[in-house]
Design a protein that fits this description.
Elements lengths: L1 E3 L2 E3 L1 H26 L11 H21 L13 H24 L7 H25 L7 E6 L3 H10 L8 E7 L22 H7 L4 E4 L10 H9 L3 E4 H9 L9 H6 L7 H37 L4 E7 L5 E7 L24 H9 L7 H5 L4 E3 L6 H10 L12 E3 L1 H5 L6 H17 L2 H17 L4
Parallel strand pairs: 3-4, 3-5, 5-6, 9-10
Antiparallel strand pairs: 1-2, 7-8
Helix pairs in contact: 1-2, 1-4, 2-3, 5-8, 10-11
Organism: Massilia litorea
Keywords: Membrane, Transferase, Transmembrane, Transmembrane helix
Pfam families: Bac_transf
């Protein structure tokens, strides 16, 4: 893993992305060359001055479409099975539609239909071959990192289970565990690394060819080998604590494995003037574009809501925003008008019987969220951020969920990291899971992460998953 704008990015996925961009660029040039080789034909192609730009536009359109289809959220157990092909073809269809729009706006970039057919065929073959080679080489040992865990208790066991997941982007080979004095042992005796008298952590790590030590000891008082860990770091070994390991591997911040000092002294939480200015500019640009593209759809949605039960079209509800200040969020009404006739707020659940037929469709496609663009223009919300919750539930969650108020340090969003990474939430436990994603976003928020959230939101809408 490495970091781009504080966000952890898989090296394996990054390599695959670069390879596939090169494959797509090569397909564009190869397609044009093959078409030119046909004797006695007239070919409509962009000029040489524009061809590289056309090839780049083609590559970006396909990569964007593949990202929106979730093709860079890899599953090594799935490999090149049926779901891969089921995503590749729709990705190319979406890419074709994007290119059609680009060529309509800038016709000088158009390949011409005959070349485009060849380019798409070559690209499909190239992507399939690249993926086949990638999944084969991903099993090679040189792509694995050898790690050991300092600790043998519940935290170490949980970290090791996370590292052993076969479909993870980062492959690990676990050398073993070094138990901490007085800690409950939760791993098998055969997995323990034996340290002889006089051995140091550095020597043990070299003996087992370890490149990273994950510190997974919950109680660091008394006998904690801080000097030896410093020696390991000075010798070039990577030393990572459990909270950072969880953050890196799950893109969450685990509230049960962090100390307040980790949040205070760690990086992130950028609230500088530059970040706020760029965030606001991003919000206004995105909201303007989305409003322009979806305005006819919003009109149809409003008519559908009214025709179904002749009730109110819009639904306004009090939510908690930045710094704990309340505001009213606006949505298309997706539930019956008497959904909370008892007066007591209720968690919205999946397959909620209070949801209307039109409302059910709007929820799955996120159409009901579109009026919140007005909240973005007013400055009460951002386009990307933690979803705002109702004051009634916030008061309950603050009491039972640690660090819940941290999510109120930035503006809430129409879509967010938790919404694209976690399913529908209808309980305090779900709120805890979503908070851990929200904390990751609050700590590491950037324009790069906002862009990833938007791509993943498109995937959620297309596959009707998430919240």
């Amino acid at each position: 893993m490495f970091r781009i704008s504080n966000h952890y990015v898989s090296k394996i996925v990054s390599v695959l992305l670069v390879v596939e961009v090169l494959v797509l660029l090569g397909a564009a040039y190869a397609g044009a060359a093959l078409r030119y080789m046909e004797v006695g034909t007239t070919v409509t192609v962009p000029s040489l001055d524009h061809f590289f730009t056309s090839a780049v536009a083609f590559a970006l359109a396909i990569v964007f479409s593949m990202s929106a289809m979730g093709m860079y959220q890899l599953d090594f157990e799935e490999g090149l099975r049926h779901p891969f092909l089921m995503k590749l073809m729709p990705s190319f269809v979406m890419g074709f539609l994007i290119l059609t729009l680009v060529f309509y706006v800038a016709p000088e970039l158009s390949f011409g239909r005959s070349i485009l057919v060849i380019v798409f065929a070559l690209a499909a073959v190239g992507i399939f071959i690249a993926r086949m080679i990638f999944f084969k080489t991903s099993e090679a040992r040189f792509l694995q990192s050898r790690i050991m865990f300092l600790g043998g208790g519940p935290l170490a066991k949980e970290c090791s289970e996370l590292a052993e997941r076969a479909n993870r982007y980062h492959r690990y080979d676990i050398a073993g565990f070094i138990p901490a004095p007085g800690e409950e042992l939760c791993v098998t005796q055969s997995d323990l690394l034996k340290m002889r008298d006089g051995d140091s952590l550095v020597k043990l790590a070299r003996q087992y060819n370890v490149s990273e030590i994950v510190v997974s000891v919950q109680n660091r008082r008394g006998g904690f080998p801080i000097k030896e860990l410093l020696d390991c770091k000075l010798q070039g070994l990577k030393v990572t604590d459990a909270a950072t390991f969880f953050e890196r591997e799950t893109c969450q911040i685990r509230v049960d494995s962090i100390q307040p000092s980790w949040l205070v002294f760690g990086g992130g939480f950028d609230q500088s003037f530059v970040r706020i200015f760029m965030k606001r500019t991003f919000d206004l640009i995105c909201s303007t574009i989305i409003l322009a593209l979806t305005f006819p759809l919003m009109l149809l949605a409003a008519l559908a809501v009214w025709f179904e039960d002749r009730g109110p079209v819009f639904y306004s509800q009090e939510r908690v925003g930045k710094d704990g200040k309340s505001f009213f969020v606006h949505k298309f009404r997706s539930m019956r008008a008497d959904a909370e006739k008892g007066g007591k707020p209720q968690w919205a659940a999946q397959n909620d019987p209070r949801v209307t037929r039109v409302g059910n469709f709007m929820r799955k496609t996120r159409i009901d969220e579109l009026p919140q663009i007005l909240n973005v223009f007013k400055g009460e919300m951002s386009f990307v951020g933690p979803r705002p919750e109702r004051p009634y539930f916030v008061e309950q969650l603050i009491e039972v969920v640690p660090y819940y108020n941290v999510r109120h340090s930035i503006k809430p969003g129409i879509t967010g990291w938790a919404q694209v990474r976690y399913g529908y939430g209808s309980s305090a436990e779900d709120a805890l899971q979503k908070l851990q994603y929200d904390l990751y976003y609050v700590k590491n928020n950037s324009l790069f992460l906002d862009f990833l959230v938007l791509i993943n939101t498109l995937k959620v809408v297309l596959f009707r998953s998430g919240r």
